[in-house]
Amino acid sequence: MRVSRILLALVAVAPLAACQSRMQTAALDDDSAWYTGTMPDKPFDVPLVDTARLDPKYRRQTVRYTGAEKPGTVVVDIDQRHLQLVQEDGSARQYGIGVGKAGFSWKGEARVGRKGVWPDWSPTTTMVSLNPDLPRTRKGGLDNPLGARALYLYQGNRDILFRIHGTNEPWSIGEQMSSGCVRMLNEDIVDLFERVPVGTQVLIKRGGKARV
Q1: Would you call 110 helix, strand, or coil by DSSP?
Q2: Which residues pair with 98 in a beta bridge?
Q3: What is the pLDDT of residues 124-156, one digit of tens each?
Q4: Given 93, 138, 165, 183, which residue is catalytic?
Q5: How many whole angstroms separate alpha carbon 4 and alpha carbon 34?
Q6: Would you say domain 3-205 falls under CATH 2.40.440.10?
Q7: What element of type H or E holds 11?
Q8: Terminal-residue alpha carbon distance, the chain
Q9: How many other CB atoms are there within 10 angstroms of residue 117's CB atom?
Q10: Mean pLDDT over residues 69-85, rounded?
Q11: 18, pLDDT greater than 70
């Protein structure tokens, strides 16, 4: 599938996203300029973003980690719009993220309870109450709000309905736009997905703290 066709599909369905925001006017100017090609994947190729369009601090990179968390921990900083995967050598693999609008962002401790490849999407009860016209489900694919991968966060055996997932709105990385979930570039969530197993500890911080 050509990138131009992929982009048309993404734009057409973006307003349906539950973990996503409404389409931003600036993004409509020239969506195709955000994409440079595709990365092979199954059952769909992953559209690749021109990361030169991102603020450098939101590009995937390795940074020094000064926190106390053990290697293998995922640390999400809502304020800084960063997700870090702590490494053994005192560094962290860092990714830029998009986060929830004011009043929608969650913070706390959780674990990766399950993982999804090109996952299906369904709105929460709250989302449906706010927008009864939302579709009740959407199959995984290029037009899906969860993107190429999703990490489902649990506390104990309970799905807390908070996700770390891909996005088809790359211009939203670094922004406070979603309905609460943490969104990443599709190529970044694919990279993270391969590095974190089910059971991985996840800390979501706001104001420098994960605990209420």
Answers
A1: strand
A2: 183
A3: 666 556 566 665 566 888 888 899 999 999 999
A4: 165
A5: 11
A6: yes
A7: helix 3-13
A8: 46
A9: 13
A10: 97
A11: no
Check if 19 is active-site: no
- pLDDT on residue 84: 98
String of b and e for 49-67 (b: at least 16 CB within 10 Å)? bebeebeeebbbeeeebee
Q: Quick one: pLDDT band at residue 25, thresholds 50, 70, 90?
A: very low
CA-to-CA distance for 76 and 101, rounded, in angstroms?
15
The rounded distance, in Å, linking the Cα atoms of 67 and 174 is 22
Q: Are 184 and 83 in contact (CB under 8 A)?
A: yes
Catalytic residue among 181, 182, 184, 185: 181
Residues 6+ apart with CB under 8 A from 161: 124
Closest CA to 189 of 165, 169, 173: 165
Rounded to 5 degrees, φ, ψ at 199 are 100, -10
Which H or E run includes 3? helix 3-13
Q: Assess whether 165 carries a catalytic annotation.
A: yes
CB of 10 within 8 A of CB of 35? no
C-beta separation of 73 from 88 below 8 A? no
